[in-house]
Amino acid sequence: MSWHRGAQGSGERGYHHGDLRAALIRAALALIQEKGPHGFSFAEAARAAGVSPAAPSRHFKNRDALRADVAEQGFERLEAALAGAWDQGRPKPGAAFERVGKAYLDFARREPAYYAAMFEAGLPPDLDAGLRQASDRAFAVLRDATEALCAGLPKDKRPPVLMMALHIWGLTHGIASLFGRGDAGRRKLPMSAEDLLEAAVLIYLQGLGISGEC
Protein backbone atom coordinates (compact mmCIF):
# COMPACT_ATOMS: atom_id res chain seq x y z
CA MET A 1 0.00 0.00 0.00
CA SER A 2 1.36 3.43 -0.86
CA TRP A 3 0.39 7.06 -0.97
CA HIS A 4 1.59 9.54 -3.61
CA ARG A 5 1.59 13.26 -4.05
CA GLY A 6 -0.21 14.59 -7.07
CA ALA A 7 1.75 14.15 -10.26
CA GLN A 8 1.55 17.81 -11.19
CA GLY A 9 4.64 19.93 -11.17
CA SER A 10 8.21 18.69 -11.14
CA GLY A 11 7.45 15.05 -10.63
CA GLU A 12 5.77 12.54 -8.40
CA ARG A 13 7.13 11.58 -5.03
CA GLY A 14 5.79 8.52 -3.25
CA TYR A 15 5.74 7.42 0.37
CA HIS A 16 5.23 3.75 0.99
CA HIS A 17 3.21 2.78 4.02
CA GLY A 18 5.25 3.63 7.14
CA ASP A 19 7.67 6.02 5.45
CA LEU A 20 5.45 9.09 5.77
CA ARG A 21 5.36 8.92 9.56
CA ALA A 22 9.15 8.71 9.77
CA ALA A 23 9.55 11.54 7.26
CA LEU A 24 7.25 13.80 9.27
CA ILE A 25 9.09 13.05 12.52
CA ARG A 26 12.41 13.88 10.84
CA ALA A 27 10.95 17.10 9.46
CA ALA A 28 9.56 18.10 12.85
CA LEU A 29 12.88 17.37 14.53
CA ALA A 30 14.70 19.61 12.03
CA LEU A 31 12.15 22.39 12.53
CA ILE A 32 12.49 22.14 16.31
CA GLN A 33 16.24 22.41 15.90
CA GLU A 34 15.79 25.53 13.77
CA LYS A 35 12.80 27.25 15.39
CA GLY A 36 12.16 25.61 18.73
CA PRO A 37 9.28 23.31 19.69
CA HIS A 38 6.67 26.08 19.35
CA GLY A 39 8.06 27.76 16.24
CA PHE A 40 6.46 25.72 13.47
CA SER A 41 3.01 24.70 12.33
CA PHE A 42 1.58 21.35 11.33
CA ALA A 43 1.49 22.56 7.73
CA GLU A 44 5.16 23.58 7.86
CA ALA A 45 6.09 20.08 8.97
CA ALA A 46 4.18 18.69 6.02
CA ARG A 47 5.96 21.03 3.60
CA ALA A 48 9.34 20.17 5.10
CA ALA A 49 8.56 16.48 4.58
CA GLY A 50 7.58 17.20 0.98
CA VAL A 51 3.93 16.24 1.29
CA SER A 52 0.55 17.99 1.10
CA PRO A 53 -0.87 19.74 4.20
CA ALA A 54 -3.53 17.05 4.50
CA ALA A 55 -1.09 14.13 4.40
CA PRO A 56 0.01 14.19 8.09
CA SER A 57 -3.55 13.45 9.23
CA ARG A 58 -2.97 9.87 8.10
CA HIS A 59 -0.66 9.43 11.10
CA PHE A 60 -1.09 12.41 13.44
CA LYS A 61 -4.17 14.17 14.78
CA ASN A 62 -2.40 17.51 15.14
CA ARG A 63 0.94 19.17 15.82
CA ASP A 64 0.95 18.06 19.45
CA ALA A 65 0.63 14.43 18.40
CA LEU A 66 3.57 14.87 16.04
CA ARG A 67 5.68 16.56 18.71
CA ALA A 68 4.75 13.79 21.15
CA ASP A 69 6.22 11.22 18.78
CA VAL A 70 9.43 13.25 18.52
CA ALA A 71 9.57 13.47 22.32
CA GLU A 72 8.93 9.73 22.63
CA GLN A 73 11.90 9.01 20.39
CA GLY A 74 13.96 11.38 22.50
CA PHE A 75 13.10 9.55 25.71
CA GLU A 76 13.96 6.24 24.07
CA ARG A 77 17.37 7.62 23.15
CA LEU A 78 17.85 9.04 26.63
CA GLU A 79 16.92 5.71 28.21
CA ALA A 80 19.50 3.94 26.06
CA ALA A 81 22.18 6.50 26.96
CA LEU A 82 21.47 6.31 30.70
CA ALA A 83 21.24 2.51 30.74
CA GLY A 84 24.52 2.23 28.88
CA ALA A 85 26.19 4.61 31.32
CA TRP A 86 24.77 2.79 34.36
CA ASP A 87 25.84 -0.62 33.04
CA GLN A 88 24.07 -2.36 35.94
CA GLY A 89 26.24 -0.48 38.42
CA ARG A 90 29.57 -1.88 37.28
CA PRO A 91 32.25 -1.78 38.51
CA LYS A 92 30.89 0.10 41.55
CA PRO A 93 27.53 1.87 41.99
CA GLY A 94 29.16 5.17 42.93
CA ALA A 95 31.25 5.39 39.77
CA ALA A 96 28.38 4.17 37.61
CA PHE A 97 26.03 6.72 39.17
CA GLU A 98 28.43 9.49 38.23
CA ARG A 99 28.45 8.22 34.63
CA VAL A 100 24.66 8.43 34.51
CA GLY A 101 24.76 12.13 35.34
CA LYS A 102 27.38 12.77 32.69
CA ALA A 103 25.32 10.83 30.15
CA TYR A 104 22.34 13.08 30.87
CA LEU A 105 24.45 16.18 30.29
CA ASP A 106 25.90 14.67 27.14
CA PHE A 107 22.41 13.95 25.79
CA ALA A 108 21.30 17.54 26.40
CA ARG A 109 24.38 18.77 24.56
CA ARG A 110 24.25 16.34 21.62
CA GLU A 111 20.48 16.22 21.07
CA PRO A 112 19.13 19.76 21.64
CA ALA A 113 16.11 19.25 19.36
CA TYR A 114 15.04 16.05 21.10
CA TYR A 115 15.70 17.68 24.47
CA ALA A 116 13.49 20.64 23.56
CA ALA A 117 10.69 18.38 22.34
CA MET A 118 10.87 16.32 25.53
CA PHE A 119 11.00 19.12 28.07
CA GLU A 120 10.14 22.47 26.47
CA ALA A 121 7.17 21.76 24.21
CA GLY A 122 4.69 21.98 27.08
CA LEU A 123 3.21 18.58 26.26
CA PRO A 124 1.23 16.91 29.05
CA PRO A 125 3.07 13.72 30.07
CA ASP A 126 -0.17 11.75 29.66
CA LEU A 127 -0.93 13.14 26.21
CA ASP A 128 0.17 9.89 24.61
CA ALA A 129 0.61 6.44 26.15
CA GLY A 130 3.82 5.80 24.23
CA LEU A 131 5.31 9.11 25.39
CA ARG A 132 4.41 8.39 29.01
CA GLN A 133 5.88 4.90 28.90
CA ALA A 134 9.10 6.05 27.23
CA SER A 135 9.49 8.82 29.82
CA ASP A 136 8.87 6.37 32.68
CA ARG A 137 11.45 3.92 31.33
CA ALA A 138 14.10 6.63 31.12
CA PHE A 139 13.39 7.73 34.69
CA ALA A 140 13.40 4.10 35.85
CA VAL A 141 17.10 3.87 34.99
CA LEU A 142 17.84 6.73 37.38
CA ARG A 143 15.55 5.27 40.03
CA ASP A 144 17.20 1.84 39.81
CA ALA A 145 20.63 3.46 40.05
CA THR A 146 19.50 5.44 43.09
CA GLU A 147 18.17 2.31 44.77
CA ALA A 148 21.48 0.52 44.22
CA LEU A 149 23.35 3.47 45.66
CA CYS A 150 21.19 3.44 48.79
CA ALA A 151 21.57 -0.29 49.30
CA GLY A 152 24.79 0.19 51.29
CA LEU A 153 23.03 2.21 54.00
CA PRO A 154 21.38 0.60 57.03
CA LYS A 155 17.69 0.03 56.30
CA ASP A 156 16.57 2.48 58.96
CA LYS A 157 18.72 5.23 57.43
CA ARG A 158 17.85 4.82 53.77
CA PRO A 159 16.04 7.82 52.26
CA PRO A 160 12.90 7.20 50.19
CA VAL A 161 14.29 6.05 46.86
CA LEU A 162 11.68 7.82 44.73
CA MET A 163 12.19 11.14 46.51
CA MET A 164 15.97 10.85 46.22
CA ALA A 165 15.75 9.96 42.50
CA LEU A 166 13.53 12.98 41.91
CA HIS A 167 16.01 15.20 43.77
CA ILE A 168 18.87 13.93 41.62
CA TRP A 169 16.84 14.27 38.43
CA GLY A 170 15.88 17.85 39.30
CA LEU A 171 19.49 18.71 40.10
CA THR A 172 20.84 17.10 36.94
CA HIS A 173 18.13 18.50 34.69
CA GLY A 174 18.58 22.00 36.07
CA ILE A 175 22.31 21.99 35.36
CA ALA A 176 21.74 20.46 31.92
CA SER A 177 19.08 23.05 31.01
CA LEU A 178 21.10 26.02 32.22
CA PHE A 179 24.70 25.08 31.53
CA GLY A 180 24.90 21.88 29.50
CA ARG A 181 22.55 22.36 26.60
CA GLY A 182 23.70 22.27 23.01
CA ASP A 183 21.97 25.41 21.71
CA ALA A 184 22.19 29.18 22.11
CA GLY A 185 20.45 29.05 25.49
CA ARG A 186 23.52 27.61 27.20
CA ARG A 187 24.89 29.85 29.95
CA LYS A 188 28.58 30.25 30.61
CA LEU A 189 30.31 28.72 33.61
CA PRO A 190 33.81 29.13 35.09
CA MET A 191 33.95 25.31 35.16
CA SER A 192 32.45 22.50 33.10
CA ALA A 193 28.84 21.45 33.60
CA GLU A 194 30.16 17.98 34.45
CA ASP A 195 32.34 19.33 37.27
CA LEU A 196 29.44 21.39 38.61
CA LEU A 197 27.14 18.36 38.61
CA GLU A 198 29.75 16.09 40.17
CA ALA A 199 30.30 18.54 43.05
CA ALA A 200 26.59 19.10 43.60
CA VAL A 201 25.76 15.39 43.67
CA LEU A 202 28.71 14.66 45.95
CA ILE A 203 27.51 17.27 48.46
CA TYR A 204 23.97 15.88 48.27
CA LEU A 205 25.09 12.27 48.78
CA GLN A 206 27.41 13.16 51.64
CA GLY A 207 24.48 14.85 53.36
CA LEU A 208 22.69 11.50 53.24
CA GLY A 209 25.73 9.63 54.50
CA ILE A 210 26.41 7.98 51.14
CA SER A 211 29.99 7.72 50.00
CA GLY A 212 30.73 8.37 46.36
CA GLU A 213 33.23 5.51 46.52
CA CYS A 214 30.61 2.83 47.11
Could you describe the 3D structure shown?
- It is a single chain.
- This protein has 214 residues and is an all-alpha fold.
- It folds into two domains: 13-58, Arc Repressor Mutant, subunit A (Orthogonal Bundle), CATH 1.10.10; 64-207, Tetracycline Repressor, domain 2 (Orthogonal Bundle), CATH 1.10.357.10.
- It is built from eight helices and two strands.
- It has helices at 19-35, 42-49, 63-86, 93-110, 112-119, 129-150, 161-180, 193-207, and strands spanning 2-4, 14-16.
- It has a two-stranded antiparallel ribbon.
Please summarize what this structure is.
The protein is mostly helical and 214 residues long. The protein has helices at 19-35, 42-49, 63-86, 93-110, 112-119, 129-150, 161-180, 193-207, and strands at 2-4, 14-16.
Mean pLDDT metric: 89
Task: Give me the count of strands.
Answer: 2
Roughly what fraction of the amino acids lie in strands? Answer: under 5%
Largest sheet: 2 strands, antiparallel
CATH topology of the largest domain: Tetracycline Repressor, domain 2
Rg: 21 Å
- The shape is elongated
The secondary-structure class comes to: mainly alpha
Give the count of structural domains: 2
What gap, in angstroms, lies between the N and C termini? Answer: 56 Å
Q: What is the element string, with H for helices and E for strands?
A: EEHHHHHHHH
Going across the major beta sheet, what is the strand order?
1-2
Helix content: 55-70%
CATH class of the largest domain: Mainly Alpha
The CATH architecture category of the largest domain equals Orthogonal Bundle
The CATH homology group name of the largest domain: Tetracycline Repressor, domain 2
- Separate helix tally: 8
